[in-house]
Design a protein that fits this description.
The chain is mainly α. Helices cover 76% and strands 0% of the residues. The chain has seven helices and no strands. Helix 1 crosses helix 2, helix 1 packs parallel to helix 5 (58-81) and helix 5 packs across helix 6. The protein is elongated, with a radius of gyration of 18 Å.
Amino acid sequence: MRKEVFKAAGGKGGREGGMSLLQASVLLKSWYVSTPGKTAEGWEEDREVLGWMAEHRGIEERIQALARGRVAEEVAKLAGESPQGAVEGLVHVMKALPAEHREALMAALKGGV
C-alpha cells in the first residue's frame, strides 16, 4: 500500500519531485488514525493495520485523488512553461479519448474558464 501511495504521489525510486517512501508511510498512518475508532497505538499492530487496509475502501479513493492531484500539478506546470504546447497536448488527448470522455473534458474546460 505504501508503494501505491508513493507511486501516486510521483515517487520515482528516490525523491525526484514526489514523496519519499517514509512520507508515504506517514501519510498512510495519518489516514489510519483519522478513521473513526483507530488510534496511533493501533498503527503499531500489523494485523490491525492489514485488516484496516483490507476493509477500508476509502484508501483507494484517496490514492486516486493523490494521483489526480499530482497529474493536475504536472499539467499546470507544463502549461506554464509552454501554453501553446499545452493546447497542442490537449488536442492530442482529445483525439485519443472516447466520445463520452471527450465531452466531459470539453464541459470541464468550458466550465473552468
